[in-house]
């Protein structure tokens, strides 16, 4: 497949890609640290994944196989649109199979299938600053990161417990990376947090509007913040997937009528399809 | 079963086709040309050039047409195009003193060298709908013409500065930063702040400027001068080594004169708020000048207590392409996060019920 001749391979010009790669290298060298970068104005709106798109564009090669998911699914409109963008400007092969992809760009989920060393997971990040809700001034949060001054976050979690009996954060659940930097895992459900820990794949995070890149290198410690007497607990709907029967994956709740009818199905559509095939083969 | 997992690609294609259809509107009516937009909706084109931070009337007009008149969407289109352009250098500073004036007014002096020139302004029109414009066909009688004045029109703030009453800006030798290439970090210096304001949203700056007038960071402004007209853009190519004239662009400049009671190191004098925008954008230039002055609070030793005086607040939120992206992204699917919130709320409700 060839790419649109009106644009450089993967849309960005080579010097911009080099600038982004330098930011990525720095981010990999300091796991969890947010590296400012000269984010460009992309032809897709801020909030639609411009950071993830720039990271993907900077690391993409002609032989890569790209998978794009949003909410765990390859067929949500924005995933379809980003996949079509890269098909057009890079002409790369795309896939919906997690196992076949060399680069997976995602919004709000980590695939259920364990990732490998030869894969890279690129997260779209709306707000890279984990302390942002507690302290909106970036000049101040940078200082807090420099001093590893994370008391404010612990107090917030403690207050959750005092008020509600448990930590009331269910997504964008803050993590400590390599025992040093507090990091936002992006708005993935807390259910996905444990997958980040010691993951064999490289994890890259791009925030276009906020102009930050950060990374978790392969096999790096990623711990969800918690307390000894209130350990971290991943949240999922306790039901079973209507389609594949899964009891251990993250589920979407789908309303089927307006009188309380609902079913639960896997959010990761590729994983669900695979399980359905396995189940059918067994029958 | 109601689980829509396929069809996204087809739906997007259909949506784009529908959009093209409504953009064209009633096909019985003649299609609007980009040239008509450029000539007859000039202020929309100016605003899109300013907020798209790209001076190209033809492209801005095309963007207005493509965006169906949505000016923020048009600025976004222009910005996305602008990023793909190579950057071959920076112009020499515009000399607005040498502007070919279409309009020049001062609120601080009744008369002054160069005089007051009203120019093509809405200022003293009575806002009565002109039904003659609804019945297309007529052309205006034409404005009376006079010899262009050759008298110099020195800037009001410069005349005050000569008297020592207006603080002079310290010249900065360093190359100014470029916030489209390097991420903004705080505190940002004045050149960067002005860059951000120049491409900032007119409505946002208008309201912030207004807030300073109503007491939130006020600094008693006078319009020293507003001037609008053509200025030459000069550029020195490294291979030539001397400056060449690239052409003229229309800009609007506003210099606000503000009281300053003086500090330990500075005598009482007036201080400047500065606004400059592409095209005829008086409202934006004035708002920008108010906000620029408010953002100087810290350097002038004033208490920075109001929103307009806090640079992180102003500069992080003045860009309408960024703002509209993040506000509107809320309409993208969020059902994974919502699901975890659902489970969270259900758990909390269950524990409340159990505690009863």
UniProtKB/TrEMBL annotation, chain A:
The protein's Enzyme Commission number: 4.7.1.1
Keyword check for tRNA-binding: no
The keyword Transport appears for this protein: no
Matches recorded under Pfam families: PhnJ
Family matches, as InterPro entries: PhnJ
Catalytic activity line of the entry: alpha-D-ribose 1-methylphosphonate 5-phosphate + AH2 + S-adenosyl-L-methionine = alpha-D-ribose 1,2-cyclic phosphate 5-phosphate + methane + 5'-deoxyadenosine + L-methionine + A + H(+)
Keywords: 4Fe-4S, Iron, Iron-sulfur, Lyase, Metal-binding, S-adenosyl-L-methionine
Entry similarity comment: Belongs to the PhnJ family.
Biological function: Catalyzes the breakage of the C-P bond in alpha-D-ribose 1-methylphosphonate 5-phosphate (PRPn) forming alpha-D-ribose.
Protein name (database record): Alpha-D-ribose 1-methylphosphonate 5-phosphate C-P lyase
Phylogenetic lineage: Bacteria, Pseudomonadati, Pseudomonadota, Alphaproteobacteria, Acetobacterales
UniProtKB/TrEMBL annotation, chain B:
Pfam families, sorted: PhnI
GO molecular function, one term: lyase activity
Domain of life where this protein originates: Bacteria
Keywords of this entry: Lyase
InterPro entries referenced in this protein's UniProt entry, alphabetically: PhnI (IPR008773)
Protein name: Carbon-phosphorus lyase complex subunit PhnI
Origin species: Falsiroseomonas selenitidurans
